[in-house]
Amino acid sequence: MTSQTFTDSTITAPHGRPGLDALIVYAGRGLRDMGRGLIAVILAIYLAAIGLSIPQIGLVLGASLIGGFVLSLVVMFSANAISRKAWFVIISAITGAAILMLFITENVWLIGIASFFGSYAGSGMHWGPSLQLEQSSLTEVTNSQTRTRAFSNLSVSSAGGRAIGSALVGIATYLIGVRDWELIDAYKVLLAIYFGINILNAAIYLALSSAVESKASAGSLLVNPLKTPSRKPILKISSLFAVDSFSGGMIFDAFFALWMVDKYGMNEGTIAAIMIATQGLNLVSIWLAPSVAKRIGLLNTFVWTQVASNICLIAFAFAPGAAIAAGIWMLRGIFDEMDVPTRQSYMMALVPPEERTVMAGSANLGRGLGRMPSSTVTGFLWAGAYTVAPWLIGGGLKLAYDFAIYFSFRNVELPEESD
């Protein structure tokens, strides 16, 4: 592949109130993932407790992923018609409202419909309409010199939020172990907290200013990503992200929790403690990611740290005991999310400013498309007693993605790395 250079016209400081808007985006991500960290621990266990089978749980989670994909499409195509601020508020409110369905029914179809709209798949993974809104909004209020650090701050907010969310599961442990509550009743307390988190988030987003909105001229109400000048790299990176997302969707936190319960007999409090420790390691690596990227480049950082992470993932499937499994999972946490800020910054640097909303939307749609069938596939593999398969298939595909994206973009020269 011949060397390519993409220009960056965002060297100058952004206008408006970038500091405050960035803080609001960070706070919104932290709250959003606080809820996701909470539901990641309890969701599959709660659904099993109210009578859903493993394949049905997989279908419910799959409906959530499909819903996120559809909403991502709507957000991307309506970028010129509906403001980012409005979408932030709408998505948070819908997510909160959909959780109420779990209080009023045990019908798998009604729960599936609510999951479609309400993002029940508490995977802790950062894809979907909220992510593309965060990426494009932060890019508007940063420049090429501060963008990677801003995405690192966003990921720190995310990891911190998920750690707090996992810690909140201790409320249910207390209610069940000390107060003798039934599991379902104790988990409903956590679901009520999740509802409140999303409503609070909707209120916080109301404070965003117009600085986060796209500065690109709107030629029409609908955006067509296939007509953008950078459509070739956009489509290539979106396709590769789909492979990564499919493999990641097979092994997300809800299934990790169920694996630790079924194989090792762990309780939810111990699982939450492992997740908290893992998120602590994530915080360190995420914070260091911009510094590492300055030394070895954005592409090298987000590829090679993932190679290490995915080797750990495969090793986790063969852990002979609970302590070793937990240790490998936490070791993976050192590397697992160092790619998040560097990958997002790389995406934004790969295209000119006027195409960054399309890049964010297309890349995250690729991730959403890949993720849609993954949890359902895991559910059926698990039901067929192939419980180890998701870890091996997911880890193997992720390694293939790492090498594919490296060899596809290794000769692309970014402006901030050409000095």
From TrEMBL:
Pfam families assigned: MFS_1
Superkingdom as given in the UniProt entry: Bacteria
GO molecular function annotations of the record: transmembrane transporter activity
Keyword Membrane: yes
InterPro entries given in the database record: MFS (IPR011701), MFS_trans_sf (IPR036259)
Keywords: Membrane, Transmembrane, Transmembrane helix
Chain segments annotated as transmembrane: 37-54, 60-79, 86-104, 150-177, 189-208, 237-259, 271-290, 311-331, 380-401
Keyword Membrane in record: yes
Name of the protein described by the UniProt record: MFS transporter
Organism: Candidatus Lucifugimonas marina
Organismal lineage: Bacteria, Bacillati, Chloroflexota, Dehalococcoidia, SAR202 cluster
